[in-house]
Amino acid sequence: LEGEFARLDRLNLVAQMAAGIGHEIRNPMTTVRGFLQILRAKDELANHWEHFDLMIEELDRANAIISEFLSLAKHKVDDLRLQNLNAIIRALYPLLEADASLGKKAIRLELGPIPETYLGEKEIRQLVLNLVRNGLEAMGEGGELIIRSYREGDAVVLAVCDQGSGISPDALAQLGTPFFTTKEQGTGLGLAVCQNIVVRHRARMTVETGEQGTTFFVHFPCSVDFSQASLSTANNFHYTGF
Ligand code: ADP
Ligand code: MG
């Protein structure tokens, strides 16, 4: 399977709108959630507690979607500076490990010698976090997730390798489409955020998947001329597998 898609213009528009209205929507939602909790606790409404729980759950889901939308729009390109990817991953490791241990999983770092590349620290943290969380969520109970870094030609490669059940051809075709999710509690925005970050780094994301698990690769260019403000909207999320 090979594919390519370009949804970035749509994504950027969506991100700008989200930045404008996200905060404004959140405040009234917080108020509503608070009153729902008060009503849920009333004895005379006890026969409706399931409905209140459902309403609160739905509000939380909407809130999660807004959070991910905001993170689409938050970061700026000029955050990028020469630094080592390994340092960012190491600093993030305790958080990742805590996530993993909740599901009795382990995370192994295999960080090789790599040169510094132009990276936005917050964006890379978000990228790694989103890929790792997807990997962990795909693995069920137990298992090991590996985060690798290595140099390949003119690129520094980040690889997030899980032992999950893989991505179906149907899902592969929709990967990165905002709101595409196969999870009950999913937002379907994690990979869309990743793609946005990858493109701003002039990087490239690929995925390999099969019955043994899935690996997401991100290739960061070692030398890149950011003065050439040619932010390509021809996004390059190639995938292989099956
Ligand atoms: P969410 O995690 O909220 O569902 P994402 O954009 O992060 O949204 O992922 C979209 C979908 O892509 C997931 O619901 C899942 O079906 C699929 N996916 C992403 N990463 C993996 C992975 N490592 N293994 C299996 N499926 C994955
Ligand atoms: Mg996700």
Automatic annotation (TrEMBL):
Q: Which residues form a coiled coil?
A: none
Q: Where is the Histidine kinase domain?
A: 20-224
Name this protein carries in UniProt: histidine kinase
Record organism: Heliobacterium modesticaldum (strain ATCC 51547 / Ice1)
